[in-house]
Design brief:
Blueprint lengths: L15 H12 L7 H14 L3 E5 L2 H11 L7 E5 L5 H8 L3 E5 L10 H6 L5 E5 L10 H11 L2 E5 L7 E2 L2 E2 L8 E5 L12 E5 L2 H11 L3 E2 L12 E2 L10 H32 L5 E2 L7 E2 L5 E5 L3 H10 L15 H5 L8 H9 E4 L7 H15 L3
Parallel strand pairs: 2-3, 2-4, 4-5, 5-8
Antiparallel strand pairs: 1-9, 6-7, 6-13, 8-9, 10-11, 12-14, 14-15
The structure holds pyridoxal-5'-phosphate (PLP).
């Protein structure tokens, strides 16, 4: 097909300055456990407005140690969204607990606070709302429910670095105990693989530091000598390298520009695609600012046909996400009868269009044209 393009749904943006930062780090004396780790943490803490940040090897590692720090363990449950990446639920299993799925809201595809509240039981100890697509969930509402039921709140903000809720940046933890981020290449900023937890609690911060590094500390009241370290609990090696942190620091300086570009692309899609019968477009939300991690449209009928046509045109559309409890692993692990009707309807209609900072105007136009063609609109 003449003029056929190949467009991914998401992609990192790496500048000369990013490459230079990585080069300097790899040539330095410490390529891991060096000064860039704390520098990146300080920068994230300053950016989000939280008191503490702990950077780790992935968003999944961040969720795992946050889940343990939240007290999730055998016999306990945590509630997350039916529409999310599997990691939001898997972290509860890693910690020995049981994930419970709440349905989503039709409009925002964020967790439905009313359904979440219905699913709280004596065993529930944490809520894990996800800022789906980068659009903030209603944190004040979720916090009220958590307070009433004495629950910890972990925000899964893998999609939402750079988003804002009621004038404050996601990650400030004003309405939660911890927030996790992912720095996978399709996310707001990247370190290759990487993640972080932010918190305002010194106690949680210290626990997260321990869990990142085998449960080992050198912070000992009366050491026999400088060699001494203590393993206080079973932790992990979830460390991230100085090379990755140098990239993260450089990327963080570019974050506001990335978000502006994502906003611009979303605006163009919304302008060009509004008013088409049978097509529902995503909103930025009235609670703040979306980070526009993904732009998900909903096609009332014929989703598969539209998806296949777009893929056929070289546009690497995707579906975010298959309801987690329908995965074969979950179905065979006791989730056979779970059903979240709004999530299932959403899933049957969703298509993720490409959005990433370096997306060119002609690529946006190409996607719009191909989509209109697939929908039979001209
Ligand atoms: C909502 C959500 N949570 C957690 C993760 C896990 O992050 P990572 O891939 O960095 O482990 C992802 C990654 O895609 C995600 O989308």
């Amino acid at each position: 097909m003449p003029g056929k393009m190949v467009i991914p749904y998401g992609k990192q943006s790496i500048s000369r300055a990013d490459i230079e930062a990585v080069r300097r780090a790899i040539e330095g004396p410490f390529i891991t456990q060096g000064p860039k780790v704390k520098e990146f943490e300080d920068a994230l803490q300053a950016y989000t407005g939280a008191k503490y940040a702990v950077v780790v090897s992935s968003g999944t590692a961040a969720l795992h140690i946050a889940a343990i720090a939240a007290g999730i363990k055998p016999g306990r449950e945590a509630i997350t969204s039916a529409i999310t990446f599997v990691a939001s639920a898997n972290c509860v299993l890693y910690a020995g607990g049981k994930p419970v799925f709440a349905d989503v809201l039709e409009d925002s595809v964020n967790i439905d606070p009313a359904d979440m509240e219905k699913k709280i039981r004596k065993k529930t100890c944490a809520l894990i709302p996800v800022h789906f697509a980068g659009r903030p969930a209603d944190l004040e509402h979720i916090r009220r429910i958590a307070r009433r039921n004495k629950l910890i709140v972990i925000e899964d903000a893998a999609h939402a670095l750079g988003a804002e809720y009621k004038g404050r940046r996601i990650g400030c933890c004003e309405h939660s105990d911890m927030t996790i981020f992912s720095f996978h290449p399709v996310k707001s900023i990247t370190t290759g693989e990487g993640g972080a937890v932010t918190t305002n609690s010194k106690e949680l911060y210290k626990r997260l530091l321990l869990l990142r590094n085998h449960g080992i500390t050198r912070d000992i009241a009366h050491p026999e000598g400088e060699w001494q370290y203590e393993m206080r609990e079973l932790g992990y090696n979830y460390r991230i390298t100085d090379i990755q942190c140098a990239l993260g620091l450089s990327q963080l300086r570019r974050l506001d520009g990335f978000i502006k570009r994502r906003e611009k692309i979303a605006e163009t899609y919304t302008r060009e695609l509004s008013g088409i019968d049978g097509l529902k477009l995503p909103g930025a939300g009235e609670l703040g600012k979306s980070a526009w991690h993904i732009y998900v449209i909903r096609v009332r009928t014929g989703r598969k046909n539209v998806f296949d046509r777009l893929r056929g045109a070289g546009i690497n559309v995707n579906v975010h996400y298959i309801p987690v409890y329908t995965q074969p692993f979950y179905r065979s692990a006791g989730y056979k009868n779970v059903s979240c009707p709004v999530a299932e309807k959403y899933y049957s209609q969703a298509i993720t269009l490409p959005i990433f900072p370096e997306m060119k105007e002609k690529e946006i136009k190409y996607v719009v044209k191909a989509l209109k063609g697939a929908l039979g609109v001209h």
